[in-house]
Amino acid sequence: MKQIANFTSPKTFKATELTADNAQLVEVEKPFDELKNGEVWIQIKASPINPSDLAMLAGTYPHLKTYPFVPGLEASGIVVASGGGFMANFLLGKRVACSAPATGDGTWAEFMKAPAANCIPLRKKLSFEQGASAIVNPLTALALTERVKKSDSKSFVNTAAAGALGKMIIKLAKAENLIPINIVRRPAQVDELKALGATVVLDASQADFEKHLQEQYETLKPLVILDAIGGEFSNTLLSLAPNESTLVTYASLSKDFLHLHPAPIIRYGKKVEGFHLAYYLSHQSKLKLIGFTRKAQKLMIEGTLASHIHHKFSLPEINQAIAIYSNQMSDGKYILCFD
Ligand SMILES: NC(=O)c1ccc[n+]([C@@H]2O[C@H](COP(=O)([O-])OP(=O)(O)OC[C@H]3O[C@@H](n4cnc5c(N)ncnc54)[C@H](OP(=O)(O)O)[C@@H]3O)[C@@H](O)[C@H]2O)c1
Predict the structure, then answer these.
(1) Helix residue spans in the chain (DSSP H)
(2) Domain segments of the chain: what residues?
(3) What's the CATH superfamily of 136-278?
């Protein structure tokens, strides 16, 4: 195992472990063991709590891990050791954004072992706090906006619009001259998004929401509905939508299945498709991936794809941070920080 200069590998390191669905996380010591060829040890600097982490903790996120395991799906850090191989050796000493391996332990720990392919070098101008969220939301915002641009309409529906991803989509759409019909679920979020420059913001908690949605559908004729909600709400979105429109389901914040009436699909050419970032990335060429991550980091530095960091916390505070974040997700990112 090759290591960076001035780094003495510890025998063990601190991590949090999940022992069962919905269990409180427990602090444990993990061994800093040998690497296989192509693997690296990353010293974690910062890692966010994302909605997909909450689903993982609840046991509702499809994964290949076995209990107990360290949760956490993305982070930033420094590659401190390499198990050999071109990519792993190239990354040695580099600041990186990284995602957790499909099996094994994740990012909510002082160190994470991962295949070198799970790391992306971070540009100097990106802090570790911003870099911690450099993969999941920025790349998803770019991919979903690209999907909208393939449709024959300048307008689209942006659900969960007050969340971190929703706000990135709003800013990207503005740069691309697209018009999102943004949907939130609290009155205060309408003002917040209008202050960001959003022109159309509908509050789904209002009694006349469906009437306003229909008016916007008739005026703007969106053909892509980016749906992060699921449940009965997806049926409302698709059944009122223009003929030939496509509902792109990419999350299930309602924690419910898609309840879709078949008539709009059978009769009016409406469609349903799914989006998952890892699946999408695994179907792109290496060249496209390089271009994509470069573009994402450039737009993060410029602010378009930057995440608002609401709260930083340390490893012993993790259970408390998860409880607070779960109830106020639109406040901004909750970031686990080391140092
Ligand atoms: N498929 C993929 O590859 C992919 C990639 C990236 C993200 N995602 C998903 O995209 C979603 C948004 O991510 P994010 O980082 O933007 O999350 P976030 O910053 O935590 O924001 C979540 C947003 O969803 C709203 N929300 C939560 N539960 C809701 C419900 N039942 N009905 C309506 N709105 C609800 C929240 O509103 P309040 O503030 O009112 O709670 C908040 O505005 C997540 O579900 C995430 O897993 C999927």
Answers:
(1) 51-58, 86-91, 128-131, 136-149, 164-175, 187-195, 209-220, 231-240, 263-267, 277-282, 286-302, 318-327
(2) 2-133+307-337, 136-278
(3) NAD(P)-binding Rossmann-like Domain (3.40.50.720)
